[in-house]
Structures are given as C-alpha cells and as structure tokens.
Amino acid sequence: MTFDPYSLALFTDAGELIKELHCPLKKRWHELGETETAHRTCSNCERPVLDTATMTEAEVVAVVRSDPQTCLCVSAVQENLTLRSSMPEVAE
Fold it and tell me: Which of 17, 21, 62, 70 fits a 20 to 30 Å CA distance from 48?
C-alpha cells in the first residue's frame, strides 16, 4: 500500500485509491478503546478502527469495498506501507 500524508489518501501498490482518510473527531490511536484484537474502538462514534499495519492490502481493500465508511489507522512507520507526497514543491 501507498499513503500520501499530505492528502491523507491510501492507495494500492498499483495506484488505485482505497480511501481518503478523515476523522471529524480527530482521534489518535492511543485515545481509542483497546480490544482483544489489533483493532480498536472509538468511544465517541462506537465504530471499530482497523489497524492497517496488521492487514494485507487485499484485506484492507475488501473491508473498505464492503463498507466505505470503515475507519482505518495508518502510520507512516508501518512496514507494509510506502509513503508518497502530493505536496506541491516550493520554488526557491
């Protein structure tokens, strides 16, 4: 998977958009309720938040396709992720 931290968009390795991440509550991973799995639960909206670091690209795509409102946690340091940037270059 590829993640653009500027646009908060998650893509497949082939460049297909999986999901644009957006949490109106601005929750951080450590603020979410722990569960018996690698995933967590938001105490405000009661939705599960899936940790993409523990999932394959195919699993993430399947979950988002079945429920486009799925909440995802993406970290810039996870091993199954490449970073890319859409941030405009600044002229010197």
Answer: 17
